[in-house]
Fold these 2 entries.
Entry 1:
Amino acid sequence: MTIEEVIKKTVENCSDADTNLIKLAYDFAEEAHRGQKRKSGENYIQHSLQTAYGLAQMKADCASIVAGLLHDVPEDTKYTLKDIEKDFGKEISQLVKGITKLGKIKYRGIERYRESLKKMILAMAQDIRVIIIKVSDRLHNLKTLEFLPPEKQKRIAQESLEIYAPIAGLLGIERLKWQMEDICFKYLYPEKYNKLEYKYEVEKKVERQRYIQRVKGILKKRLKEEKNINFSIESRMKHLYSIYRKMQLKDRPFNEIYDVFALRVVTDNISDCYKILGLIHDIWKPKPGHFKDYISVPKPNGYRSLHTTVFGPDGKATEFQIRTKKMDDEAKFGIAAHWHYKTKGFENKKEQPKWIQEILELQRGSKDANDFIKKIKLDVFQNRIFVFSPKGDVFELPEKSTPIDFAYAVHTDIGNKASIAIVNEKMSTLDHKLKNGDLVEIRIDKNRKGPNHNWIKFVRSKKAREKIKQNSQKIGIRKFLPKI
Ligand code: MN
C-alpha cells in the first residue's frame, strides 16, 4: 500500500489542500514510525496506510484520513499529541486523542458488554469519526491476526466480535461488519468455520455459481428488452458468520439456509427500481410474505431498498435486492445505522434508550453525514459528559461534574473514602470540573470514616449529593450541613 493509492481513493471527497495535508501526515507518520515493524514483519507505516485506506473507502472526510495516518503516533513514537497539534491543528489532534483513549476500552465479560457498548457509542458519538477511525484500525489488526500468539488472537477476536463489529453495524458500515465477523468467527471457532467454509466455498461453489449465472442470464435478457434501463447485477456472497448465526438461531440445517441464492440489482433511479421489481415478479413467482418496500417506507435507520424472494429456476428460492447506486453506497459504507434491528437487546422498542430515538430523529432530518454529526454534537450530548476510568469503563455524568461525582458513580465506598484525584494522569483537586473524555483515577484513604461534608457544595450528581448527606449524618456532622 502506498500513500498514492490512499489519495487516489479520496478524489471525490478531498480538495487539493486536503490532499497536501494527507501527504504531510504521511511524511510525518512515516518518519515517526521509521524502523518499527509490525508482527508480520512489515514496516509499521503499512498499518497506518491500511487504516487510512479503509477510511477513504468509506468516504470519510480528510481530517479522518489524516488522523487515521497519525493514529498510533502518540502511543508508539517519540512524538506527542502536542507535536501533532502544532503541525496539524486542534481538530486532528482531538481525533487522534479520542482514538488513543478508545484503545483503553476492553471487552470484559458478556454481562457488561452491552452497557459498555452503549456508553462507548454515546461517549464517542460526540465525534463519530473517532469510532469510524477506530473500526478501520481494528479491521487491519484483525486482518493481520495470524502473526500473533493464539491466546492474543482469541482475545482480540472476542473483543472485536462483541464490541467493534456491532459498532460497525450500528454505523451502517455493513461491509466492514461482515469482514470483521468472518475473521473473528475463524479465530474463535476454527473447526466450525472450516467446515462451513468447505461446504460453502468448495462443495457447493460450482453449483451455486452456475445457478446464479443462469438467473442473471434470464434477467439480463429481459431487462435489455426494456430500453433505457441501466442496471448491473451482482451476486451477493452470504457471509459465513451470518449463516452460522442463522443456523443457531433458527435451528435449521445448513442446506436450507445457504441454498438461498442472493442477487442485487443496482440501477439509476427509483422508478427503474420498481420497473425491475415488476419484471422480476413477471418472470418468477414471488414467495408470499417476502416482499419489502424499504424505498417508500425506509427502515428507521435510513436503509432503503426493495427486497423480494421469488421461486427462481427449478423452483429454488432466490432473493433480490433492488436499489439505486446511491442507496447501495449508503448501505455499504454509510453512517445510516442499522440500530435496533440488528443489535440484540435493542429489539424491544420499549427498551430503547432515549438517545437512540434522539439520534434517529436527527438522522432522519439530516442532509448527510456531516450535517448529522454536527447536529449530534449540539443536540444530544449537550448536558452530559462521559469520563473514563483507568480500566476503560465509561461513566456518564452531568456537566461540570467533579472527581467526587465520578468516585460515587464508580462505587459509594470509593466516594466516601476518596482522597486524591488524578485527571488525565495529572494530580488534580477534588472539585476540579471534569470535561468530556477525561480519564479519571481516584485514590482512596482506607482509614477515612466518611465523606467531607463540604463536598456537597460542589458535587453535581444526585447520587453523590445523596450519599454525602447520608454518610455525613451517620458520623454525626449533620449540623454542619449547609441547607440545600
Ligand atoms: Mn493502530
Entry 2:
Amino acid sequence: MEQYAIKGGNPLVGEVEIGGAKNAALPVLAASIMTDDTVYIDNLPDVRDINVMLQAMQEIGVMVRRDNRHKVTVNASNVTNLVVENEYIKKIRASYYLIGALLGKYKKAEVTLPGGCDIGCRAIDQHIKGFKALGAEVTIEHGLIKTKADKLRGAHIFMDVVSVGATINVMMAATMAEGTTIIENAAKEPHVVDLANFLNSMGASIKGAGTDVIRIKGVSSLHGTDYTIIPDQIEAGTFMLAAAVTKGDVTVKNIIPKHLESITAKLLEIGCEVEEADDCIRVVASKPLMHTQVKTQPYPGFPTDMQPQITVALALSQGTSIVTESIFENRYRYVDELTRMGANIKVEGNTAIINGVEKYTGATISVPDLRAGAALVMAALAAEGCTVVEDIYYIQRGYEDFHLKLHNLGAMIELVESERELQKFKLKIG
Ligand code: UD1
C-alpha cells in the first residue's frame, strides 16, 4: 500500500509548475465525444480521475490516443454503446458528464450513478431538472441514470442551487438541442467557462459563461478542435497555502492570477506577502500567520476545494479563526486527523472554530478525501518529526506528481510502498 513518509520542518522554497485543471479537463473530455471529427486536447493533468474518464470513453467505443503525458487525440465517430456501466466509473463524480454529452449528441444515455469524494450529500436533482426541461425522460433504475429524448428543445431553466456539475451537464445537452436555452443562476467557475470555450471552438454558440446567465443557441453538429485546458486553480492554491504553512517562499507558475483572487486575498489577510505577475504568483511567509474568517462560496467566492488547506494554515495562526463551509456538509472529516497532530479545532455544524497552536507534531494519519489529503500533507510538512500519510490514492485522484513537486521545493517527502522502505526513510532522516 502506497504511503507518503514526511519529515516536517523544511520551508518550501522555489518554483512550481502548475498543471491543467482536472475539473475543466473532465467535462472537456466528455464533450469531446460530441463530434465525429478528431479532437486534440492538451494540458491534461496525468491524474487518476482523468485516466478513469479516458478508460470509460474507450469502453463505449471512443478512440483515445495518448500523444504524450498531457496530450490526447480523441475520435468518437465509432461510439457503439450508450451505456456507461462500470465499477471504476462509479469512483469518479464527473462520470455523469457523459450523460449530458451523450444525451446531447445521441439523445440517449445510461450512466452509472456517480460516486466521488465523500464530502457530503451530492444531489443530482438540478441535473435531472435541466434534462427534463430540455424534453428528456429521466429515470433512475438499478443504479443507472437513464435518459432519452426524441428531440431536445431549448428551454428557460432556473437552477435552484448554484451547481457546477448541473450547469456543465445541462450546457452540454443544450448545445445540441433545437432552439435557445437560458440557464439562470448558473455556476461561474473557471472550468464552466473553459468548457464553454471548448464547445464554442467546436462550433457551439454559448454566451455568458462566467456570469449568472448562460445563453446557448443549439446547433445540429459540432466539429473537431485543438484545445488547451486552463491551469488548475486548486493545485495552484494548494501550493500557495503550502508556502504559508511551511513559512516558505514559493512561486506558482503557469497560472491565471484572476482565478486565484479569493485565495490571494486570504493570504494577505493572514500576513503573507503576495506578488502577482502575468502568469505566476509568488507567496512569501516571513512573518507569523494571523487569524481570519473564511466562508466557502461558489466562484468568485473562496472555493470549498481550498477549505481544508486554509484550515491547516489557520490552525497554525495566532488567535481564533472561524471557517464556515457553506457548500458541502461533510467536509471536516480531516479535522480528527489534524487534531491528532496537535491542532485545536472545534467543529459545530458547518463551522470550525480554530484556536491557533504553535506547531503540529508528526503522527500516522489517514486521508479521508482528495483536498483534505493535500491539506494533511501540508500539515505534515510543517510538523515536528515524522508523519506517515495513508490512503494517498485520494490525493493521486487530483494532484499530478504531488510528492515530487513538493520534493523539488525542498520538502522531505517520499512515496513508500512497504514497511522496509518506511524504515529506510526514517533511518535516512535520523
Ligand atoms: C464540483 C467539483 C468539486 C467542487 C464543487 C464545488 C468537479 C468534478 N467537482 O463538484 O471539486 O468541490 O464543484 O465547487 O468539478 N447540488 C444540489 N443538486 C444538484 C447538484 C448540486 O443540491 O443537482 C448541491 C450540492 O449538494 C452542493 C452544491 O449544490 O451542496 C454544489 O455542488 P456542485 O457545484 O454541483 O458540485 P459538483 O459539481 O459535484
